[in-house]
């Protein structure tokens, strides 16, 4: 695959995972589902997984991450403030019929605000976005005209704040941070769940995008 991205709804379909590729190399954002399913997809497409990035630490965004990182000997990135959510997420994974995490699970590397080269020709800006969780992040990949918001903002709503580490005040500030970037109207926006958007759509129709 050339420099490109694809939204993948891996079973059990719940979360929007994103596969970003450059040639035969790729990274995954929010690796949800069974690790074996991801492994088959990568093998079928002859792709080399180079890293995994998580918008936050809830189980429905990280279920396959530690297993894939260990199998392929790669780094998994998550903001350190969400480390307590990993084991907390087991009840959620169990409800989807997915294996829970053990206490000796492979730990992610800390990811904070800044700029990262994730693949040849693809740089990513990382922004901290607490509110849905303490360690929430969103990512902007200018070369792909792509914004990955996690559960901070949705197509027609915004992320919940009643889970551990949630804060309505902080979430509104994080949404305002996205808004203040003044990204191009045609920027493609992938949310943690449900439909994708554009910045233009959010500006016009999402009353919480302010």
Radius of gyration, in angstroms, nearest whole number: 16 Å
Element pattern in H and E: EEEHEHHEHHEEEEEHEEH
Average pLDDT, all residues:
97
Sequence stretches where pLDDT stays below 50 over 5 or more residues = none
Helix content: 25-40%
Backbone shape: globular
CATH architecture, by name, is 4-Layer Sandwich
CATH topology label? Metallo-beta-lactamase, Chain A
Major sheet:
6 strands, mixed
Under CATH at level 1, the class stands as Alpha Beta
By DSSP (H or I, 4+ residues per run), the number of helices equals 7
Distance between the termini: 36 Å
Counting helices, strands and paired strands, the structural category is: alpha/beta
Major sheet strand order: 1-2-3-4-5-6
- Tell how many strands the DSSP assignment holds: 12
Number of domains: 1
Keywords:
Metallo-beta-lactamase, Chain A, alpha/beta, 7 helices, globular, 210 residues, 25% helix
């Amino acid at each position: 695959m050339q420099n490109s991205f694809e939204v993948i709804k891996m079973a059990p379909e719940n979360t929007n995972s994103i596969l970003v590729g450059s040639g035969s190399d790729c990274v995954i954002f929010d690796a949800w589902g069974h690790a074996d399913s991801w492994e088959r997809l990568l093998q079928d497409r002859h792709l080399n997984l180079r890293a995994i990035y998580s918008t936050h630490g809830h189980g429905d965004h990280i279920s396959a991450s530690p297993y894939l990182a260990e199998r392929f000997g790669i780094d998994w990135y998550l903001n350190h403030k969400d480390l307590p959510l990993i084991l907390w997420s087991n009840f959620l994974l169990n409800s989807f019929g997915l294996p829970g995490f053990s206490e000796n699970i492979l730990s992610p590397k800390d990811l904070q605000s800044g700029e990262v080269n994730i693949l040849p020709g693809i740089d990513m800006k990382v922004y901290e976005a607490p509110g849905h969780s303490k360690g929430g992040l969103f990512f902007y990949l200018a070369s792909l005209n792509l914004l990955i918001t996690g559960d901070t903002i949705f197509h027609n709503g915004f992320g919940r704040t009643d889970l551990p580490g949630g804060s309505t005040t902080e979430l509104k500030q994080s949404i305002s941070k996205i808004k203040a970037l003044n990204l191009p109207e045609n920027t493609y926006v992938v949310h943690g769940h449900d439909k994708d958007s554009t910045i233009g759509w959010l500006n016009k129709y999402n009353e919480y995008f302010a």
